[in-house]
Amino acid sequence: MTALDKTNTALVLIDVQKESEFGIEGVNTVVNNTEKLIAECRKMGIPIIYTRHINREDKIGLSNEEPLTEEDKPVFYNNGTDAVEIKDQIKPEKDDIIIDKYRWSSFYDTSLDLMLRNMGIKHLIMGGFVTDGCLMTSVFDAYFRDYQVNLVKDICGATNEGAHMASIMIMANWVYDLAIFDTSEMIRKLNGESYANWEATYPDQLQFTPEIMRQMFHGLNR
Q: Checking DSSP bridges between strand 97-101 and strand 48-53, what pairing results, if any?
C-alpha cells in the first residue's frame, strides 16, 4: 500500500462552498465527514487548502455558455453573493490557504501547484464538489503533475449517485497510483492504525457496467 508521510501531505478540499449545497446528494453527510477529517489533519499539522470556484458578476472570465439569470448574472458561484464562501461548518482558519479559480480544475491558471511545491508536498488527500466535475478534473491534473492522490470518496458529492460512482471509478481506472478511502479509514491511516482502502493493480481494472456499477463501487471499501 502507498506510504503516506504526514510531513509532505496536504488536505485539498475542492469547492466546499455554500453554492454547492444546491443539488448535491447527501451534502450534510459529506460536510460532517469533511469536518472530522479537517479536525484530524489540524491535530497532525497537515496543511489544509481550500479552493473556491468563482464566476464574476460582471461576467469577465466566464466559461463558454456559463448559465446566466434573466438579469444577466451568473447562476452559480456568483461572486456578488455568499454562494462563493466556504460552508460555515468547515470554514477556513487563519493559516489555511484559499485558492480562487475560474475553471473547473483547481490547477488551471491558479497558484495551487506553486503553493504545494513550495511546501514540499508530494501526497494529496482530496475531496469536495462536484465529484464528476471540479473534483475529478482536479484529481487528474494533480496526477499529471506527479502528486500522489488519496481520494476520500465520502467527502465527495455530486448531483446524483450514478454520476458520483461513475466518476470515482473512472478515476480509479486511470489514475494509476490513486488510493481510495472512506473518512474513517483515512483517519485510521493517519493515526498509524490498520486500515482498509482500495488501490489499483493495473489500468482499467474496474470493467463496470450500469448493471453492476453499485456492486463494484461498494467494492472500493476494501
A: parallel
Question: How many helices (H) and strands (E) would you count in the chain?
Answer: 6, 7
**Of 162, 147, 152, residue with least CA distance to 105:** 147
CATH topology of domain 6-221: Rossmann fold (3.40.50)
Please give the order of strands across the beta sheet that includes 48-53.
97-101, 48-53, 9-14, 123-129, 148-157, 179-181, 198-199
Cell readout for 147 is 502528486
- 31 in Cβ contact with 38 (< 8 Å): no
Whether the Cβ atoms of residue 127 and residue 71 lie closer than 8 Å to each other: no
Q: How far apart are CA 91 and CA 94, in angstroms?
A: 10
Q: Which three cell numbers stand for residue 29?
A: 453527510
Residue 158 amino acid letter: A
In whole angstroms, what is the distance from residue 82 CA to residue 66 CA?
A: 19
- Encode pLDDT of 64-80 as tens digits: 999 999 999 999 999 99
Q: Tell me: the pLDDT tens digits for 163-206? A: 999 999 999 999 999 999 999 999 999 999 999 999 989 999 99
Domain ranges in the chain? 6-221
In degrees and rounded to multiples of 5, residue 178 shows phi and psi of: -70, 140
